[in-house]
Amino acid sequence: MSSRKRHHLLIIDPQNDFCDSAGALFVPGASQDMERLAQFIHQKKTTLDRLFVTLDSHHRYDIAHPLYWVQEDGSKPQPLTTVTVQDIEKKRIIPRHSADVDRSYHYLSELESRGISHIIWPEHCIIGEWGHQIYPIIAQEIREFQERMYQAPTILFKGMNPYTEHFSALSAIVPDSSDRNTQLQTSLVRELLDCDQLYIAGEALSHCVASTINDLIANIDRGERGKIVLLLNATSPVSGFESMMDVMLEEWSQSGIHIKDIHEALEEE
């Protein structure tokens, strides 16, 4: 008789600032995503072997927040402002501390060489504040998981380095050579995939979920990609980024990743 398959679940950033309508970076649809995901966790009961949860974790002073930057008139740039290398060169927008200019210039140069814009976000997921906390319905399921399985979840903090953004669960967008936590977490890749099925859900599909999936695709072979199931109705894109998702979902599917709604995943039990 074959042994039962091992199932892991990775929840990306199920936090108030993304999932509650009062959150600083509320993702439209996220609260409903979390309700469906909570039902999924509850229905999986003892067939869910490990639970991984990432938490976006920032300081107010962060390269992705207004406080880090200053404009020519001495004011902070508004959220959703794009900052470019040319802005620094022409001193239209520069880091508040002169000691941070060179590293910030290098950071933006690296992003632009990859065709990525640096967007300043509203302050969000500030460590210790309400927005950083896990959305209540998911927090309850995490508590119950521990009671059922006599096992702690694996909580993964990301984003505490103020000099680089950290969308992916596995690496920062521009790794900091002096900070191992920003570099590719190869041991975590192996830990996540030490199973027959890795379910992925959370927020936001267009950013942190997408970056995590792309990191996985880049660092595992096609056979292992077949273990991954994106729970499509337990994740949503940031408003304004919806159009890019159809292409990305098709690319992921072509790479070997499975994309399913929660009811489909549960029916396969």
Q: Main traits of this protein?
A:
single chain, 269 residues, alpha/beta, Rossmann fold, 2 domains, six-stranded parallel β-sheet, two-stranded antiparallel sheet, 10 helices, 10 strands, 15% strand, globular
Summarize the structure.
The protein contains ten helices and ten strands. It has 269 residues and is an alpha/beta fold.
Task: Give your account of this protein's structure.
The chain is 35% helix and 15% strand. The chain has helices spanning 16-19, 30-44, 85-89, 101-113, 136-149, 186-192, 205-219, 222-225, 245-255, 262-267; strands at 7-12, 50-56, 69-71, 82-83, 93-95, 118-119, 154-158, 197-202, 228-231, 258-260. The protein folds into two domains: 7-60 and 126-267, Rossmann fold; 66-119, no CATH class. InterPro entries: Isochorismatase-like_sf, Isochorismatase_Nicotinamidase. This is Cysteine hydrolase.
